[in-house]
Amino acid sequence: MSKYILSIDEGTTSTRAVIYNKKGETIAQAQREISMSYPKPGWVEQDANEIWVAVQAVIATSLIQSGIQPTDIAGVGITNQRETTIVWDKETGLPIHNAIVWQSRQTAPIAEKLIADGHKDLIQKKTGLIPDAYFSATKVRFILDHVSGAQQRAENGDLLFGTIDTWLLWKLTGGAVHATDFTNASRTMMFDINNLKWDSELLGLLNIPLKMLPEVRQSSEVYGKAIPIHFFGAEVPIAGMAGDQQAALFGQLALDQGDVKNTYGTGSFIMMNTGNQPKLSNNGLLTTIAYGIKGEVTYALEGSVFIAGSAMQWLRDGMRVIERSPESETMANASTNENEVYVVPAFTGLGAPYWDSEARGAVFGLTRGTTREDFVKATLQSLAYQSKDVMEAMHADTGLRVAKLHVDGGASLNNYLMQFQADLIQKPVVRAANVETTAIGAAYLAGLAVGFWSDIDELKTLVNQPTEFGSEMPAEQADELYDGWISAVEATQVFKPNRKGQI
Ligand SMILES: Nc1ncnc2c1ncn2[C@@H]1O[C@H](COP(=O)(O)OP(=O)(O)O)[C@@H](O)[C@H]1O
Ligand SMILES: O=P(O)(O)OC[C@H](O)CO
Q1: What's residue 502's pLDDT?
Q2: Which of 71, 97, 331, 413 would you call most buried, defined as having the most Cβ atoms within 10 angstroms of its Cβ?
Q3: H-type alpha helices, 258-326
Q4: Residue 503 pLDDT > 80
Q5: Quick check: CB of 328 below 6 Å from ligand 1?
Q6: d(CA 36, CA 13)
Q7: Cβ(313) to ligand 1 under 6 A?
Q8: Pocket mutation for ligand 2, best pick of 181, 244, 285 (most atoms within 8 Å of C-beta)
Q9: Is the CB of 107 under 6 A from ligand 2?
């Protein structure tokens, strides 16, 4: 019996491979940065070949450093930055354009036209998404428009589309398997999440040929085998795939209806498990597929906060008030003010539930006595306020209150932030012992498919003791603080910078 599961976590800024043993313990890991290119303001692209090479490199490094034989890997799980779009030639395996990254705004005019043409409700009803450049569909259209002859080649069946999971699966299997999973398909804006099929009406709106789309499969099943040349001599089954936020939900074992997780990384992604029926949002949230396993699909509501941990990077690199992100915790603890300063980090607009792309950041409540520490504390608190905004929208949509917030991601290591989050929502915040739940989620999905772990109950026995932060603030005070935040956001939205004047 093989002894390990290997997880590939292909994130926006870096790619990692993590090897787990049967107890769910991390045995080895390797990481490599991925470069970004910004061809024009607001455009974000990556080289799909660089991603593929980086994935091979991290697999090799994790195996070599641990001394684990490739034949000892029972299965591979893939989790990935979602929505990022690649189109490649079926024969040569070469991408015909850079990968267009989820953050890129280059296809905003295509999304705006869909809205102007009156398709917003149809798109939301079918896909659960709000038409936006964020999702893959407009990115595919852009590539077909910008590469000479691409539309015709796609119609002839010579080009393939894939999100990162699909690209890696296709590469690892030597071009034998062109497939994605429900979670990634649900982020393309081409997939009907109700009947679980690519939607011909949506494809027609953007003139995208069905022939180029991957087969959609469950998040936990054997899709194919990595060919020995790509897996260092072994034929290893690729057995789990899920978008990174969904993998984090699964890694947290937030598998019951009403369970909520928040991953505090560069951005913050809050997801509520809503069970086996899609629930459309009236409050600016996205409806998405959480996972498809054993023939059943589970749905989620999701709110994305664009600026979370990256606000700490701004304090470090832009404002230069801290040298390292974790220092924000000591600084916040040293602040003596009464939380009267608010920082609204709307650096690239406001995400869920506001969706205001014109808004820009603002600071409120400064006095002559405001210190650097107060400023850092207020910036850190903005992560918690923004997360509460999303949880409020979830409550408005479902009537459910978060009973316990499961947290993970790099910034969840900040104890001040976790305590403040618990105070603000007046509910316990439970931090996973291993905050890298994305990679473990993909490992669980793969491990279940190959029988490495027998069932969810077995997975539950693997989880180490989490850290729990209980609410310590009187409810009235938490409400007052939150009211202050709401008025700060409102004021931020009123201010429209003079773009011509380049403020
Ligand atoms: N102790 C900390 N306090 C606050 N922010 C932190 C802390 N440690 C890391 N961060 C922030 O978390 C982010 C990194 O988290 P990670 O989960 O690795 O993100 P991603 O997966 O998006 O790359 C960075 O933006 C960093 O500034
Ligand atoms: O790679 P991350 O962790 O920044 O996650 C990106 C999200 O999947 C985008 O939707």
Answers
A1: 36
A2: 331
A3: 309-313
A4: no
A5: yes
A6: 8
A7: yes
A8: 244
A9: no
What tens digit of pLDDT does each residue of 266-319 get?
Answer: 889 999 999 999 999 999 999 999 999 999 999 999 998 888 998 998 999 999
Q: Read off the pLDDT of residues 45-58 as tens digits, 9 standing for 90 and up.
A: 999 999 999 999 99
Is 389's C-beta closer than 6 angstroms to any atom of ligand 2?
Answer: no
Distance CA 215, CA 78 (A): 16
Domain 309-391+474-494 has CATH 1.10.10.10: no
Q: Residue 33 and residue 15: Cα distance in Å, rounded?
A: 6
Residue 246 assigned as binding residue = no
**Could you tell me which of 171, 190, 277, 242 has the C-alpha nearest to residue 449?**
242
User: Cα separation of 245 and 252, whole Å?
Assistant: 11
Condensed to tens digits (0 to 9), the pLDDT of residues 255-272 reads 999 999 999 988 899 999
Fold match, 4-245 / 309-391+474-494: yes
Which ligand has its closest atom nearest to the C-alpha of 33? 1
Question: For residue 316, which ligand has an atom nearest its CA?
Answer: 1
Average pLDDT of span 164-185? 97
ipTM of this predicted structure: 0.97
Q: pLDDT value at position 42?
A: 82
Q: Which residue has the higher pLDDT, 423 or 266?
A: 423
Q: Which residue from 12, 325, 383 has its CB within 8 A of the most atoms of ligand 1, so it is best to mutate?
A: 325
Helix, strand and coil content of the chain, in percent to the nearest 5, comes to 35, 25, 40
* Domain residue extents for the chain: 4-245, 309-391+474-494
Q: Is the pLDDT of residue 501 over 70?
A: no
pLDDT score at 1: 63
Whether ligand 2 lies within 6 angstroms of the CB of 77 is answered as: no
Angle subtended at Cα 17 by Cα 15 and Cα 18, rounded to the nearest 5 degrees: 135
Top mutation candidate among 33, 81, 183 for ligand 2, by most atoms within 8 Å of CB: 81
On whether the pTM is more than 0.90, the answer is: yes
Residue type, 500: K
Ligand-binding site membership of 29 (annotated) = no
In angstroms, the CA 39 to CA 238 distance is 34
Cα 411 to middle of ligand 1, angstroms: 4
Supply the residue whose CA is at minimum distance from atom 15 of ligand 1: 410
